[in-house]
Amino acid sequence: MYIGLTSTFHDLMEGYFAPANATAARLPKLLNFNYKFGEFLGIAVAKNEERELATMLLGQGLSQSVNPIALPYAGHQFGHFSPQLGDGRALLLGEIVAPDGARFDIQLKGSGPTPFSRGGDGKAAMGPVLREYLVSEAMAAMGVPTTRSLAAVATGDVVQRDRAHPGAVLTRVASSHIRVGTFQFFAAHFGVDHVVKLSNYTIWRHWPELAEAPNPHLAMLDRVIGLQCELIAHWMGVGFIHGVMNTDNVAVSGETLDYGPCAFMDRFAANTVFSSIDTHGRYAYGRQPQIMHWNMARFAEALLPAIHSVSPDDVEAAKALVDAIPARFRAHWDSRMRAKLGLAEGGADDRALVDDLFAELEMHSVDFTSFFRALAMLLRGDGARLEQLLPTPDAMAPWVARWWEHIESDGVSPLVRADTMDAVNPLYIPRNHIIEPALEAAEAGDMGPWRELLAVVQQPFVERPGLERFAEPGAIDAAPYRTFCGT
Ligand code: AMP
Ligand code: MG
Predict the structure, then answer these.
(1) What are the helix and strand counts (H, E) for the chain?
(2) For this structure, is 248 an active site residue?
(3) Among 93, 105, 190, 334, which is least packed, fewest CB within 10 Å?
(4) CA 455 to CA 133: how far, in whole Å?
(5) Domain residue spans of the chain
(6) Closest atom of ligand 1 to CA, residue 122
(7) What confidence tens digit (pLDDT) does each residue in 152-163 have?
(8) Which ligand is closest in space to the CA of residue 88?
(9) Biggest CA pair distance of the chain
């Protein structure tokens, strides 16, 4: 078996990374391999090559031409700047060019300490590895830009956290691992020439057409802001709470990065927080647009020397781009919510309808995911699903009547409309109360429930008989769900 890896970051960005190697593992065992995504990447694996694959995906026995590295980065964590962070438990093996020409990083997460581990063990426990695999693949299936999961491999070693857990390594695939924090690292430690170098590399890697812009760095700021506005609107449209939107966890590619304490909301409440360390709700569901705005202001700051180096006048343009973020986000949010509600683009006073919806959902503690599917059922003449979600059958009757008026005003048949709504409103998401038992079973040696759940969320929009329990919210009186950083 051969996986062709190159490394443009290694070859072009000499001096900005640290060579590192994976720690040997006792008993490599493939927990899961993403054959479909592997095929997309051009990696063909025969069943009898799984042992070799497992060893390789623990970073062992790599060919001489592979140069694993760990990347440094800085970042604002909960608003406070750390000038020196980095891949403390991740190894960038290299890049793979898919048959369609797209370039991806192949990174091992949990493969042992690196020069940036700051005393950490560099390892990952099986539960969080499988959690990231599941949630990232669910996000991909929903069409949300995200890093992907190619494989999860057990190490056969024990990882000490709250107790001893079996260890594992995730193979994470990203269009790059360049973070806002990577730019902050360059800006904090080196001069403007280095920021320009990183910016040029990023442009070459992601948006080569921007190299032709009058000020490529400004054009990149514009692009990254646009992608973040779209991403956060997408997250919120599926009830996703990232949980730790520190600048080091923001990929400039616009992909969702770092699935530590993230989770999906069941019953709607704008201030929902799952992360055990987010005690002030900085990264609550409803704050994500403001935090994205703040993060993009930090990105602009880091890029400013590069922007200025091309044209001092463009500093004002950069400020204007940052100031325009709330309006730009709102435009993405409006269009996403219109799609979710089956409304035509550009309908009059849709905004009030959307804003009032969130007040209603919160007041009646409605399951966010189920609500949009129930609305589509209403268009098919079945009101029972909506009634079941509400404390009293007519609790949302005035809002639903307004929505009907909007729907009727643009003349598309209700049945067609219901289908287009179902195509953007997932029915199956990785719900917290369903993930947890699947992870516990996996750590105890039974991958069955995890595999079953993966298969369910990989097809999030298509209702299938027998899967009803996967679409149900958790018990209303359950203890608050808590998530943790780190794998
Ligand atoms: P994260 O929570 O994934 O955003 O990680 C924050 C920082 O801590 C990153 O720089 C990680 O590389 C580092 N880190 C997290 N867990 C470990 C660990 N077990 N060993 C070493 N570094 C870690
Ligand atoms: Mg991180």
Answers:
(1) 17, 11
(2) yes
(3) 190
(4) 12
(5) 8-174, 180-260+274-333, 342-487
(6) 20
(7) 999 999 999 999
(8) 1
(9) 68
